[in-house]
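Supplementary Note 3. Input sequence used for the single-chain structure prediction.
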Amino acid sequence: MTRWFHSGRRRDCCVVLYDAGELRAQPLKSRLETHYDERIDPQSFYATLSAMVDDGFLSRRPEGLADVYALTPAGEAALLEHYEWLSARIDDAPGK
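The predicted structure, written as discrete structure tokens, is reproduced below.
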């Protein structure tokens, strides 16, 4: 797993975008805040998105005044790889 994926927030951004297809930053942030039941610092959130775009895991395109984000093929592959790893741990857990 690549280093960028060590962050739960980065993984969760990918999960939300995998489900939604593409989102503007604010609805993405709102969905994560609802999931976490707490406010996310905007500066930290946008830095996370920028880093993921720079690393090639998210794409960003302008639409009006806001940017729209989506998973790239590399982002989707990393997410699915993590999902397979997690599923194997859960499926093979003792007592299951």
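Residues 9-91 form a domain with the Arc Repressor Mutant, subunit A fold (CATH 1.10.10.10). The two ends are 26 Å apart (CA to CA).
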